[in-house]
Amino acid sequence: MSDAPKDVRGLDPVDRELLALLEADGRMPNNALAERVGIAPSTCLARVRRLREIGAIRGFHADVDPAWIGRPIEAMIAVRIRSESRDQIGRFAASLAGIPAVRDVYFVSGSYDFLLHVAAADVEDLRAVITERLSGTHLVAVTETYLIFEHRRGS
User: Fold this and answer.
1) What residues does each domain of the chain span?
2) Of 14, 30, 99, 150, which one is least surrounded by beta carbons within 10 A?
3) Rounded-to-integer distance, Cα 141 and Cα 68, Å
4) What is the pLDDT of residues 67-90, one digit of tens each?
5) Residue 62 — very low, low, confident or very high, per pLDDT cuts 50/70/90?
6) Cα-Cα-Cα-Cα dihedral of 104, 106, 110, 111, to 10°?
């Protein structure tokens, strides 16, 4: 057992290094991961499996530019739920996943309840998301849309 300090979630320095490496390159092979952190491949595989099971790794995906799949118009949409509809926030959040243009849903604090990252085929598609799927429901009080001109992923 290592004497290295663990954080409040029970991750040791090796776990944190594995997470950092996978965040930078989710396709890094297990043998390369193991070598980079200095552990046996079987140990590495078990650690990565555990990190997935506890939710530290939420999944693996390709970071696809939406323009390459026919959705070049990106926006962040701030959404405020009507005060009398607060009891339906969970249902509303779940319904957002069914909108093809919605890429990410953030439940936030502040003057809005949600921030949505959307990628639309064109301006009419974006308008339909806002007017029909969001403002067109009895749950939404206000939306505010911010067009995204450029996106850069942080390190």
Assistant:
1) 13-53, 66-148
2) 150
3) 33
4) 999 999 999 999 999 999 989 999
5) confident
6) 50
Secondary structure, 3-state, the chain = CCCCCCCCCCCCHHHHHHHHHHHHCCCCCHHHHHHHHCCCHHHHHHHHHHHHHCCCCCCCCCCCCHHHHCCCEEEEEEEEECHHHHHHHHHHHHHHCCCCCEEEEEECCCCCCEEEEEEECCHHHHHHHHHHHHCCCCCEEEEEEEEECCCCCCC
Whether this prediction's pTM lies above 0.70 is answered by yes
Measure CA 24 to chain center: 15
Model confidence over 16-48: pLDDT tens digits? 999 999 998 999 999 999 999 999 999 999 999
Region 13-53: CATH code: 1.10.10.10
